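Re: the request from the purification team.
They wanted to know what the chain is likely to look like in 3D before they choose a buffer screen. I agreed to run a prediction and write the result into the notebook, where they can find it.
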Amino acid sequence: MWAQTTSSSPYSTTGIGEEGALPEAQYGGMGNISGISFDSTLINTYNPSSYSQLSFGQPLFSVGVSSKFSTYTTSAGSFQGKTTGISNITMAIPMGKFFGIALGLKPFTRKGYDLSQRSYAYDDSTTFSYKGYGSTNLLFVGLAYSIIKNDRSNLSLGFNVGYLFGSVTNERRSVFDANSPAGGVDQTTYRLKSVHYSFGASYQRFLDVDKRKQLFLSAVYTPKISINAFRDYALYYATDVNNQLSYVDTATYVDNNKGKIVFPSKQTFGAGYAFSPDTKLSNKQKFQLGVFAEVDLMQWKSYDEKFDAHTTSVTFTNTFVSKIGLQYIPSIDFTKKSKGAKYFTKVKYRIGGEYGLLPNSMNGRQLKTAVATIGFGFPFLSQKTNSSLNVSFQYGSTGTGNAADLKERFYSINFGIIIAPSSYEKWFKKYKLD
């Protein structure tokens, strides 16, 4: 099983953790826009229709790593959190003019927190410690087909189907301080395995004969799924709650309680517009500016846990997240007059933002998140390849807006490398003559 610590957030205490993969560098600089397919040199695993829009003869391999650093503030003080993990491992292959496939592995949900609370009763005090850990992951394969593909338009449909697996654990420890470190330990583990699928559509069209103006539209739908799950519950007495070998007395133990976790559906809609100037009558470099917008809707109220002799108390709220991003490329002109252009005119400069509502609530108030992003795509030009190094930075906050509630301020650094064969190599070449 592929396991990594992909969360350090108190907001991951409920359900099976925070939904979604860690930010991918190539999209993390544009407000985390992920549904729009706007670049044939990038792998977009969230919208599977993008696989048929890759450059022909240019298979792509992508791997990403993200780190997030958080400061959580309450009325009682503040504490730090840190997360580092793999955001994706993916390979995409264009198959002829109209088809494309992809396969990969990425996180699905993440749980990670470590909290404590002390309460006083008469002459004694009790310390409660809460800890969560684990993740679920998605191993998937996808297929896309362009039902319309010509010099002006591209309409593509695609789907991903995958295997969802992993486990997450919630643990509570209680200790009478006079008897420390002896106390009670309460553990609940969910082990998940199920089929997962999603569908995507994307449309691109040049609005003029010179192909200087381009329109992008996209939609992604992930249906509600019933995840096959097992729930393990145990209540122990331990002579040392910090040492699992000292869990000597089992008060309650329920193993392999089979059930279902109903995970909500999600819809994403996106649109974009890219523009390049007319440079036929001048020696100026031909730049490209693209602006993109996206909304995510998720029906979290349908989340449910169904196990024998277990009633769920998890309540979520439906979410709405809006995103906006811009990408600027100083030079996209590969004619002779631009051969002497400096390297940084080929770099892709990205900026964006994200704002929305999260499924969790605190003291009856729904959490909100706001993120500002910036990123860069550094191409590898020396070998005439679509390979690139992508870097993005994010700064944001999460909270209810009430000073009495827990608030998070964070920044993240995301790296991603995309490897493609150069024009000199013989990967996936189709020869017309022997």
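For the purification team: Confidence is low (pLDDT under 50) at residues 1-5.
Please add any questions underneath this entry.
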